[in-house]
Specification:
- The protein has helices at residues 2-28, 34-38, 57-81, and strands at 98-103, 112-118, 121-122, 126-127, 129-138, 142-153.
- It is of the alpha+beta class.
- It folds into two domains: 2-45; 57-163, Nuclear Transport Factor 2, Chain: A (Roll), CATH 3.10.450.
- It has a four-stranded antiparallel β-sheet, covered by helices on one side. The protein has a two-stranded antiparallel ribbon with strand order 3-4.
- A hairpin with a 3-residue loop joins β5 (129-138) and β6.
- The longest helix is centred in the first third of the chain and has 27 residues, at 2-28.
Amino acid sequence: MLLERIAIEVINLRKSLLSVFLIFLVTFSIPLNIKAFSYNYVKHELEEDYITPKNSKKKLYQDILMTLLLANLQNAVDNYYKEYLSITPTVAPYDVPILSVDIIGESGTFDFRMKLELHPYVGPHLDVGLDYITVRVNPVDKVKIEKFEHIKSYELPSYYQNIIKKKLP
């Protein structure tokens, strides 16, 4: 008899809690599809960058493109940072977001301008800066760096201060 009474009380308590929870949801308009909201399935409402699925064709094409451009990107970074650091920062091809791509002229001319974001680093991935680089790709010039913009500098830890020739802007 005592167990039956406890079971009935537990059921009534669950019903009360469920009712309070539903009233809370309706009152405060909390999205019911929490999984979709938390995993950013609604792409047009994203505030952060969309992350390409690991094995997608888009990811594959971007990796190929960055592999082909890497020597030119690294050369531009070398030229900029040689005045400031005694060692050359590295550009990782997997960490080069494409900010924009434009076709120069009409479609089919194979003349493109891309703006890329670089995160050059030294040592165990200690970022030294944030840079934007504008690259022109076409059959005549192949790859030409049109503009290198140093956007932000990051301070290196004390044990890397010895590589600084001159303070970064």
